[in-house]
């Protein structure tokens, strides 16, 4: 296998260092490639499309389709093949162009000078280029800490609380230009952490907060059994990472230049990447699609996907009914909260609102959470902050201002409790009971209909029997009692009466639309006579 890969990737190159390491005194010229130990990834120079610009980066070595997962000099390509990768005197790995071998185009930028002669750059089989001292094993820098647009298994997204590291995905500019685009996916530093996709400075989509087993806004993670996800939020860092339980699965997640997050898995049989998941994909996914205090329900999308949360009404009704939801909703009665007995209306299967300004206490139970919210007049809603996946809930998230970007799902999602005043609570309670009344009414009319049907069938059967006995007496029988009944005659022993076309045309006023009653499974139905 090894030989095959080496031949495959080195045949058209001048040299191929079949090695995963660049030593401190070595350099890598354009055309040379290093391969990770398992030969899953390669590191070296590459071009994209028909362009002659040369970039340094990491790509899949075993995949026939060029798939770059990391780029070093993404904003400063080399315009010829004179590029060189080598260590600077201070121990940084640098990319140089021939025009200036003293000023690098790109550098690992480790601030401390590294003097160890045993310093190397090594490409790991997870696709991580690591600067480390082989003697002590100390790492100085790794490409996983400086992702471009691709989130590989075992990478981390998020920030460290000290040290200022922030691992952000930044899209390419276009499929053939790996330069820094303006779509980013980053861990929000404000409030309770969530990943936010930005389009320039605009929030475009968010994962929702981590709720124990998955992101609140990624219900598909329930089914992602081949991925083991883990989220860390402690004094040192806030980060998200995932692994693949089946090591033979090749998968990557990326932010593309249009602002879509896509996960692909490699289908070796067909030699292609298969889109496993992508987001945003429906109206309700777009950040704050229904404005402040509205929520998005994709199931009701034949009418309006946006509804105001309980206790709220559209700020500008006219805009709302023109399906312009940007104005959002405001409280029906500005002064009624926190006066008399408030209560909560439960929104089930929800993606909870943006947690940027939410408060969190992981030590409370859901019941205590409710009490805390009731006891604080600025609290407008609450939800549990952590699910263990088997019904256990703990932690308390409370909202204290406008609620933004709430939506519901068909089956997944969590419970979100919205504070309402006494009047609104009564309305929702009566809504509940009126729904019950409606159900009873439907049941009554259904059984009435069934009884009516039975009566009709009974009458029909009786008539049929009578008819048969008449037929047996072999008389010509006219069935209908219209003015032209004479022309409508049975032929003996026919199951169905047959009429010729003229007769029917005359009877239905030449199939006039005035005579059309409707259409059924067997065709249109006409009434006879004018
Ligand atoms: C990689 O290269 C270094 C130096 O050239 C050499 O010492 C080492 O044995 C090589 N490793 C492999 C696996 O070829
Ligand atoms: C390549 O870019 C350098 C500047 O980085 C410029 O001086 C040089 O003329 C360019 N060469 C070509 C062939 O475009
Ligand atoms: C290379 O860059 C350095 C630092 O900017 C500068 O001093 C030097 O003159 C440059 N050399 C060439 C050949 O451009
Ligand atoms: C390295 O530092 C220089 C100067 O601070 C900066 O312009 C450059 O973008 C940095 N490069 C990387 C790869 O972080
Ligand atoms: C993002 O970049 C694209 C081109 O790369 C540009 O057309 C677009 O206007 C930019 N969007 C924002 C929000 O900056
Ligand atoms: C995921 O599971 C694999 C195999 O069980 C394990 O090697 C890996 O460390 C796990 N990764 C994470 C992020 O939990
Ligand atoms: C708003 O609520 C207050 C207190 O419950 C009540 O007195 C007032 O009549 C309400 N206003 C409207 C417009 O319903
Ligand atoms: C959080 O509060 C700030 C300051 O009041 C406000 O500008 C921002 O819109 C709020 N964010 C959300 C998601 O409500
Ligand atoms: C939450 O509980 C833990 C242990 O039960 C305790 O160490 C911590 O101080 C508590 N935090 C708060 C905010 O009460
Ligand atoms: C209500 O909650 C907010 C946000 O957590 C907090 O700032 C405020 O002090 C609380 N008010 C009371 C009376 O507890």
UniProtKB/TrEMBL annotation:
Every copy of the Apple domain together lies at 338-421
Sequence ranges assigned to domain EGF-like in this UniProt record: 280-318
Please give a single GO biological process term from the UniProt record.
rejection of self pollen
Question: Can you tell me where the transmembrane regions are?
Answer: 439-461
Q: By its UniProt entry, which InterPro entries does this protein fall under? A: Bulb-type_lectin_dom, Bulb-type_lectin_dom_sf, EGF, Pan_app, S_locus_glycoprot_dom
SMART domains attached to this UniProt entry: B_lectin, PAN_AP
Q: Where is the Bulb-type lectin domain?
A: 19-144
- Record flagged with keyword Glycoprotein: yes
Q: Which GO terms describe its molecular function?
A: protein serine/threonine kinase activity
Which protein are we looking at? non-specific serine/threonine protein kinase
Organism from which the protein derives? Brassica napus (Rape)
Give the gene symbol: BnaC05g08660D
């Amino acid at each position: 296998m090894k030989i095959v890969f080496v031949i495959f990737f080195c045949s058209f190159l001048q040299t191929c260092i079949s090695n995963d390491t660049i030593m401190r005194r070595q350099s890598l010229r354009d055309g040379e490639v290093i391969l990770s130990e398992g030969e899953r990834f390669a590191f070296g120079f590459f071009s994209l499309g028909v362009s002659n610009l040369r970039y340094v980066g990491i790509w899949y070595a075993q995949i026939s389709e060029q798939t770059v997962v990391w780029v070093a000099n993404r904003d400063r390509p080399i315009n010829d093949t004179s590029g060189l990768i080598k260590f600077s005197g201070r121990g940084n790995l640098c990319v140089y162009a021939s025009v200036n071998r003293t000023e690098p185009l790109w550098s690992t930028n480790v601030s401390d000078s590294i003097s160890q002669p045993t310093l190397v750059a090594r490409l790991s089989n997870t696709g991580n280029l690591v600067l480390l001292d082989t003697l002590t094993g100390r790492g100085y820098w790794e490409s996983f800490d400086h992702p471009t647009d691709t989130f590989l298994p075992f990478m981390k997204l998020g920030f460290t609380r000290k040290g200022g590291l922030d691992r952000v995905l930044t899209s390419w500019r276009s499929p053939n230009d790996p330069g820094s685009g303006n779509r980013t996916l980053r861990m929000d530093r404000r409030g309770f952490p969530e990943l936010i996709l930005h389009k320039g400075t605009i929030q475009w989509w968010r994962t929702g907060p981590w709720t124990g087993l998955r992101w609140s806004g990624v219900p598909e993670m329930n089914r992602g059994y081949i991925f083991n996800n883990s989220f860390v939020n402690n004094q040192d860092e806030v980060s998200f990472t995932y692994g693949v339980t089946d090591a033979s699965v090749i998968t990557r997640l990326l932010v593309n230049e249009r602002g879509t997050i896509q996960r692909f898995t490699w289908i070796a049989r067909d030699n292609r990447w298969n889109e496993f998941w992508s987001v945003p994909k429906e109206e309700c996914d777009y950040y704050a699609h229904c404005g402040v205090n509205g929520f998005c329900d994709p199931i009701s999308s034949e009418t309006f996907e946006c509804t105001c949360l309980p206790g709220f009404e559209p700020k500008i009704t006219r805009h709302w009914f023109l399906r312009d939801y940007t104005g959002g909703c405001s409280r029906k009665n500005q002064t009624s909260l926190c006066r008399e007995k408030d209560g909560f209306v439960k929104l089930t299967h929800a993606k909870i609102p943006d947690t940027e300004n939410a408060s969190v206490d992981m030590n409370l139970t859901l019941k205590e959470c409710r009490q805390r919210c009731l006891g604080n007049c600025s609290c407008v809603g609450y939800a549990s902050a952590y699910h263990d996946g088997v019904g256990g809930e703990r932690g308390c998230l409370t909202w204290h201002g406008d609620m933004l970007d709430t939506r519901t799902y068909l089956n997944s999602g969590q419970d979100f409790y919205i504070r309402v005043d006494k009047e609104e609570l009564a309305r929702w309670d009566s809504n509940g009971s009126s729904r019950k009344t409606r159900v009873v009414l439907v049941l009554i009319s259904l059984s009435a209909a069934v009884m009516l049907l039975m009566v009709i069938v009974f009458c029909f059967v009786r008539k049929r029997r009578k008819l048969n006995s008449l037929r047996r007496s072999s008389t010509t029988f006219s069935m209908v009692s219209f003015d032209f009944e004479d022309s409508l005659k049975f032929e003996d022993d026919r199951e169905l009466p047959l009429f010729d076309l003229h007769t029917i045309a005359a009877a239905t006023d030449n199939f006039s639309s005035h005579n059309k009653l409707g259409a059924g499974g067997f065709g249109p139905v006409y009434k006879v006579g004018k």
